[in-house]
Amino acid sequence: MDHLQALDGYFKENRDAHIEQLKDFLKIPSISALSEHKKDMQLAAEWLLKSLQDAGIENLSIDKTDGHPVIYGDWLHAEGKPTILVYGHYDVQPVDPIELWESGPFDPEIRDNKLFARGASDDKGQVFMHVKAVEALIKETGSLPVNVKFLIEGEEEVGSPSLEKYIEENKEKLSADLIVISDTGMYGPGKPAVCYGLRGLCGVQIDVKGAKGDLHSGLYGGGVQNPLHALVEVLASFRDKDGTITVEGFYDNVQALSDEERAAYDALGFDEEALKNELEVPELFGEKGYTHLEQTWVRPTLELNGIFGGFSGEGIKTVLPAEAGAKITCRLVPNQDPEEIVEKLKAHIEKHKPVGVTVTVTEFDKGKPYITPFEHPAIQAAGRSYEKVYNVPTAYIRGGGSIPIVAAFDEILDLPVVLMGFGLASENFHAPNEHFHLENFDQGLRVIGDYYYEIAHFTRDELKK
Amino acid sequence: MDHLQALDGYFKENRDAHIEQLKDFLKIPSISALSEHKKDMQLAAEWLLKSLQDAGIENLSIDKTDGHPVIYGDWLHAEGKPTILVYGHYDVQPVDPIELWESGPFDPEIRDNKLFARGASDDKGQVFMHVKAVEALIKETGSLPVNVKFLIEGEEEVGSPSLEKYIEENKEKLSADLIVISDTGMYGPGKPAVCYGLRGLCGVQIDVKGAKGDLHSGLYGGGVQNPLHALVEVLASFRDKDGTITVEGFYDNVQALSDEERAAYDALGFDEEALKNELEVPELFGEKGYTHLEQTWVRPTLELNGIFGGFSGEGIKTVLPAEAGAKITCRLVPNQDPEEIVEKLKAHIEKHKPVGVTVTVTEFDKGKPYITPFEHPAIQAAGRSYEKVYNVPTAYIRGGGSIPIVAAFDEILDLPVVLMGFGLASENFHAPNEHFHLENFDQGLRVIGDYYYEIAHFTRDELKK
């Protein structure tokens, strides 16, 4: 029997039971940010452990960290075959403003084939799909075509403060051939996506100091440098009118987009007009010579996130402020190095330093960009699994944002990371009325199951990054 | 007998009495900003009225306004001679922080030949000098060499909200040939100054609006215009690296500095190095080709007074703010017109409007620049009176700031205004331990008295602006 058919049968037969189980998982208010839910965190971890155990996963443990516990488990009987590390999280976001929820955030309810509850999509629902996919394969075939390890944490929604240390300390235990994460979204309804790259981050704060105190613009204006003017001069020097960053060497190590990738993006038929209308801007704007998707996925940015200095109340105050400042962050793409970019920013600021003021630069936290090459077999295999189930071409996408834990996996374990999400942008992650489209629950189970077979076709060497 | 000798005799003879009288005036806490001192305002007005009456001033009245009363009085028996309108104020600033005063703000005390009290210098002391100068002349000679009108208001420290209306409604009664105001400072200790020009003011707020809400810099950064970048681009376009304003036509009507004025300023030997050290800036900065005094007295400015938008808290927030804005004011010099300059600013902003955002411009209140020509006989006469008494050259200066009531006098009465101050920058106007150097009280009485004779030498026609 074809394995997809076998999976189909299992999922159909057990669908009601699976949904009830998922509802039970969703009833536990495992809000990692709120200390009064500490007990619920433990309950959710135990519930998941039991679920993994029932699925046939072995060597299970709830591992203590400085924060909420990490769940580990594995199934390692596919000798010589690749090992997939599945990462996800069992914690959820707070629920405020509670009055905007149509049904209780922890009273899961299905309306219009959507399951409404906090965590339905982000990420309990998607973690649960991996558990059930493994369960189906083990129950139906007695084994898995690859080795699998589960690493499910309880602090993703608070920035994963304990996980990096946990990964460092359990490098051996977590060793694998690729990492699969289902915590992102599809390209659109009915349109599956594999995300194979994320941008990195670095940034600086610029503080400009003028006179020892605020000055009267009548007495001193025109004869003393104004820190706001000085700041604006520096800030304006970062970019030209075409949106190109003018920091020397900024684009030096930027990986060029391959023809294949460009074609893949073009095939998505991204609707820039629709985005313009949605954002209510007179027109879109970005680096000349690139499409909006290219601008946000494969090109680095330098953005001003805040400027401050002087008077911002109502009306007028004729002051030359003593100080002014700005916050700047860059989204970085492969193979830009955050340390190197910060050095270039500093050199640029030094070069454009205006007279009459002192300028101080402070660095922010840095995150490396991440990419698993587009043509990597683990990426292409994920695309094939989606296509078999959804019967449409898979979107190969990148994310413009940064998921710090992905960068940490990349850094510490040095493995290909496959972001295989089933959420939809409309599903209100982090907001009231979070929900999960159950057609993607149903289809996703089959995609995940199929993916294990797809990966089983490769040798471990073939999966090397 | 020479008139200066006569005055000398009178002032010496009555010095103790004058100081005691001034102390009585200073004991009245006539704080215009605080409603609990309304009664004190009336007391101070009555005290001053009595004092003017004793001096020989006639037609005295305490004129009601919407706020605190105005005192009027005159002496008009010098037929065919010019009329001087003396303006001043009997209200004072609040006294907070009270704990920093070494003696009570309303317990006048002399230490080291300085009279400490709120209002000692600003402006009760200086108003009192005019009263006593007139008194001396009338007592010693039986008359005044010119006609004199007194207009002393009680709302200068709260922005003179009622005075413009009062002047409009009493244009005839206040008609004169020149206005003398003693409410400013000398150039320095022992260095008298006549101020003959002030800068005007206009300004705009620029508001930049991007998307309908704040955007995530990961998801949208690089593909949507950032209102902060757009704002910075506009703001940077206002000025070049040499400090020259680049708004088209900005300098069109700027009156060139005459060789005489430039020489007069140069003769002051202004110490730019000392200012640099005092302000604690690495260097001074201003429009190329002009000295610091020229930059702040005779050149117009465009200053950023505040910029706001995005995140200004601690650390990092990767946001593209939906909105950003800036406040800008210009100090204007003769013959710039505030209305015209605002139109030029608007045209400049329109021309430099960045794509992808909408820009709104809001105007602030405007004030015209004021100047009585340097060579005007009323200005030069004031300089001569100072020189006779102080035996040093008078500094002919301008003020970089704007005194709205001076512009109103200029606008409504269209008279030369002579700013003849006796304060010192070190005398803590508006601050704790305000004081007045009594040597300038003693000398100033003689300067004022002499000035009446100086003005008497001119025909009314010769004093026309």
From TrEMBL, chains A, B:
<keyword id="KW-0378">Hydrolase</keyword>
<keyword id="KW-0224">Dipeptidase</keyword>
<feature type="domain" description="Peptidase M20 dimerisation">
    <location>
        <begin position="196"/>
        <end position="355"/>
    </location>
</feature>
<dbReference type="InterPro" id="IPR002933">
    <property type="entry name" value="Peptidase_M20"/>
</dbReference>
<dbReference type="Pfam" id="PF07687">
    <property type="entry name" value="M20_dimer"/>
</dbReference>
<dbReference type="InterPro" id="IPR011650">
    <property type="entry name" value="Peptidase_M20_dimer"/>
</dbReference>
<keyword id="KW-0479">Metal-binding</keyword>
<keyword id="KW-0645">Protease</keyword>
<protein>
    <submittedName>
        <fullName>Dipeptidase</fullName>
        <ecNumber>3.4.13.-</ecNumber>
    </submittedName>
</protein>
<dbReference type="Pfam" id="PF01546">
    <property type="entry name" value="Peptidase_M20"/>
</dbReference>
<dbReference type="InterPro" id="IPR051458">
    <property type="entry name" value="Cyt/Met_Dipeptidase"/>
</dbReference>
<dbReference type="GO" id="GO:0016805">
    <property type="term" value="F:dipeptidase activity"/>
</dbReference>
